[in-house]
Amino acid sequence: MDSIEYEKRTITRGALKYTGKAKQVYTTDDPDILWVHYLDQATALNGKVKETISGKGELNSAISQLLFNYLTGNNIKNHYLHSISKTDELITSLDILPIEVVTRNYASGHFVSKFAATPMQKLTPIVQEFYYKSDALDDPFINDSQILALNYATNDELTKLRAESTIINRHLIDLFRQANIQLIDFKLEFGRTKNGDILLADELSPDNMRLVDIATGNSLDKDVFRKHSGDVTVGYQEVLTRLQQII
Ligand code: C5P
What we know:
Largest sheet: 6 strands, antiparallel
Structural class: alpha+beta
Low-confidence stretches: none
Catalytic activity: 5-amino-1-(5-phospho-D-ribosyl)imidazole-4-carboxylate + L-aspartate + ATP = (2S)-2-[5-amino-1-(5-phospho-beta-D-ribosyl)imidazole-4-carboxamido]succinate + ADP + phosphate + 2 H(+)
EC number: 6.3.2.6
Domain SAICAR synthetase/ADE2 N-terminal: 17-242
Number of domains: 2
InterPro entries: SAICAR_synt/ADE2_N, SAICAR_synt_PurC, SAICAR_synthetase, SAICAR_synthetase_CS
Pfam family, one: SAICAR_synt
Number of helices: 6
Bound molecules: cytidine-5'-monophosphate
Strand order of the largest sheet: 1-2-3-4-8-7
Number of strands: 13
């Protein structure tokens, strides 16, 4: 499929704009709209390890669409517009900030390896970290003054990123708790509209968040791929099925 009816007009897919780790993004005949295609791909170590995993694109797309719709219902402004197929969607074209915002509720991953924190230790207050988006530099940690000096975002934008991430965290914690899932940590990306508004962007899936089954303690996210501890799609399917039951 290379065109779709959206808001009483036809949107047609254009050229490939870029290929990310698990997605392709195409232009459309509307300069304000992009066409995203989710790939059956998993990566670890910032793309150094790559594998094709059948069905993963559909799962990521379904979970992401469900979470964006849930956040839209909770007044969180975001880039998601419309579902095209099981793997494709329309999004608003944004000027993406070169910053990843990581929120941590419990110690895991790099927070444990960097600070020798006790795994799964509850973090009070929650931890928020910024990383500079650069594959070549392995997404280094970046602080506020570095972001301001390099003009990657304004002070107001940093305040918004923190505030939005805190609110999104509360909504996601609530939702996952109803699905008997604990939200450990997650990464968000944001972009600017032409008017300078900040919108939540990228993807919301177990590729970008750590999720633990409260009943069993099992990982339901990309850690399963990172640690070679099983088939990631089993956990992703579980997340999707549980969310579909409550949303
Ligand atoms: O690796 P680390 O512990 O810093 O990751 C924190 C959270 O951010 C995890 O949920 C991870 O999946 C996510 N993350 C991401 N993309 C990155 C870095 C981290 O989605 N480039």
